Amino acid sequence: MSKPAVETYSGTEALVEAAAEHFVAQVVEAQRLRGSASVVLTGGGTGIGLLEVVRQAPGEIDWSRIDIFWGDERFLPAGDPERNDRQARQALLDHVPVDPSRVHPVATSDGEYPDPVEAAAEYSAAVHAHLTEHGSFDLHLLGMGGEGHINSLFPHTDAVREEHELVVAVTDSPKPPPVRVTLTLPAVRQSRHVVLVVSGEAKAAAVAAALNGASPLDIPSAGAVGAESTTWLLDESAAADLPR
């Protein structure tokens, strides 16, 4: 597993620009080396913001040769504005020539799998199929909450304790909505490159704890490690508790 690298930026705009540059660089390199690329997206303000910047990028990415997954999803009806997949489509995917068959959203609560456990099993099958064929994800993007959560993996919950399953249902999320489907830490670790994009002073203590060896049970982001690289992209506020 990789040792984390830390990059600090002056503010949110510079942070999002840097995250978008990482996205483009990793996708282009994966396509050069292996012919295609796979990316696991994250939601939140910075996660969606970086997709809006990627949308403006020059045509370096071959969008027909990329698989898109999500690290987690709010288990809500199709079209709900809080769903990560809808936000990502509005920010990027509806504006680039992706192959629809290579975009892999989590099932909706009003669709074929209205039980979140069944939805998680269906998504797990898609993840396993991809990893069986390709070996790993190329890039896993992550945001982080103030208590250190990533995806829908919150401290001291069954989901963050999961050691085998790649996808699980969460029915008691401490952050609304309570029902979600999430990739687990074992799934995150099946990524060549992990990039965490974190902003804000409220997250500084969790950033410092994660980078100083905290247990993933206490600070889930501490368990987010890529096989080849792990990069923390921070604004100055989020980096405030790190040594200067």
Helix and strand topology:
Layout: E1 4-9, H1 12-34, E2 37-41, H2 44-55, E3 66-70, E4 72-74, H3 84-91, H4 116-134, E5 137-142, H5 158-161, E6 167-170, E7 180-183, H6 185-188, E8 191-198, H7 204-211, E9 229-235
Parallel strand pairs: 1-9, 2-3, 2-5, 5-8, 8-9
Antiparallel strand pairs: 4-7, 6-7
Helix pairs in contact: 1-2, 2-3
Structure keywords:
9 strands, 244 residues, 7 helices, 20% strand, three-stranded antiparallel β-sheet, six-stranded parallel β-sheet, alpha/beta
Describe this structure in words.
The protein has 244 residues and is an alpha/beta fold. It contains seven helices and nine strands. It has helices spanning 12-34, 44-55, 84-91, 116-134, 158-161, 185-188, 204-211; strands spanning 4-9, 37-41, 66-70, 72-74, 137-142, 167-170, 180-183, 191-198, 229-235. A six-stranded parallel beta sheet has the order 1-9-8-5-2-3. Strands 4-7-6 form a three-stranded antiparallel beta sheet. α1 packs across α2 and α2 (44-55) packs parallel to α3 (84-91). The longest helix has 23 residues, at 12-34. 45% of the residues are buried.
Quantity of strands, as a count? 9
Mean pLDDT figure: 96
Strand sequence of the main sheet, in spatial order?
Answer: 1-9-8-5-2-3
Strand percent estimate: 15-25%
Residues in helix, %: 25-40%
Distance between the termini: 25 Å
Q: How big is the Rg?
A: 17 Å
Low-confidence stretches: none
Order of helices and strands: EHEHEEHHEHEEHEHE
- Compute the number of helices: 7
Dominant shape: globular
User: What class would the helix/strand composition place it in?
Assistant: alpha/beta
Largest sheet: 6 strands, parallel
